[in-house]
Design goal:
Layout (H helix, E strand, L loop, with lengths): L3 H16 L15 H25 L12 H15 L1 H25 L14 H9 L3 H11 L12 H16 L3 H21 L6 H14 L6 H14 L3 H17 L6 H4 L4 H12 L2
């Protein structure tokens, strides 16, 4: 049978293990005790446990658990304001950098989104459209398209002479139906110049024969006028570039004949680049090449 002292010792050890408290080293557990000493020990143990409890409560935050009911965004905002107050320059720089990055990203995304509002732009007109209008005898449309194409800087090389060719044909057509002598002459001269430009740049594919024929027609129209000499020279140059030197010399000989038949008082410099003497020298030089 256990003694009172032994029972008390067992109770003390069990309590210390159950509640997680360590008994003070100066309190002996084993050995005989008097009832008074046991009571003193119990009082000491109770004080020790009470102090441990107090220490646990002291470790808790004042006021109990976090009772801050502010929304999360408000907490973040307050924290940002506090940081700005402590180091305004550094934190303001960081915020501005973040704003700039977000703005740049937004603009980049807007640029990547295809434009869907408003009517789509019509497809650009081409030389084929002008030639189609010309073949359909829609001369007004053909002239409009050709005039627009002359303003385009990046036409394909094979199409560079096309707009001038179309304008030359249109001007020749309008000159043929014009009754007023002065206007008729002006339109036919313009047609000759456009055909000359088209010949230099290259007639459209499949239209070389028609282009040379139109140039020959210009020669016949003004066969007794100084400006017809320009057409003869251009036709001769076209033959020479194609290695048809005999045809080139024959064309220049025809030009000499035309020059000899032009009336003596004709003003060459009004409609051409040279006077009569200069034309004579030029034709002789070209024929000797």
């Amino acid at each position: 049978m256990l003694s009172a002292d032994s029972s008390f010792d067992a109770f003390a050890l069990t309590s210390s293990k159950a509640f997680g408290y360590k008994l003070p080293a100066f309190l002996p557990i084993a050995g005989p005790r008097s009832r008074r000493s046991n009571l003193a020990f119990a009082a000491t143990l109770d004080c020790h446990m009470s102090s441990e409890r107090i220490n646990e409560f002291d470790a808790l935050p004042v006021g109990g658990p976090d009772l801050d009911a502010r929304p999360r965004w408000r907490k973040v905002l307050d924290e940002v304001v506090d940081r700005l107050k402590h180091n305004p320059l550094q934190n303001l720089t960081i915020i501005l950098a973040v704003i700039a990055a977000v703005t740049g990203l937004s603009l980049g995304l807007l640029l990547l989104v295809p434009e869907t509002l408003g009517p789509s732009a019509p497809p650009p007109l081409t030389l084929a459209d002008a030639l189609a209008a010309l073949d359909a005898e829609d001369f007004g449309e053909a002239r409009r398209i050709a005039a627009d194409l002359r303003l385009v800087d990046d036409l394909p090389e094979k199409d560079v002479g096309g707009p001038a060719y179309v304008l030359g044909v249109v001007m020749a057509r309008e000159g043929e139906i014009e009754w007023e002598r002065r206007e008729k002459r002006l339109l036919l001269l313009l047609a000759t110049r456009y055909h000359e430009e088209a010949r230099k740049a290259g007639f459209p594919e499949g239209r070389q024969g028609h282009g040379l024929q139109a140039y020959s027609t210009a020669t016949n129209r003004f066969q007794h006028e100084p400006e017809s000499l320009e057409a003869y020279v251009q036709i001769a140059n076209c033959h020479r570039r194609k290695d048809r030197h005999a045809e080139a010399r024959g064309t220049l000989e025809q030009a000499k004949v035309v020059l000899s038949r032009i009336r003596p008082d004709a003003d060459f410099t009004q409609t051409t680049r040279y006077d009569r003497k200069q034309w004579t020298e030029l034709l002789d030089w070209l024929a000797a090449l």
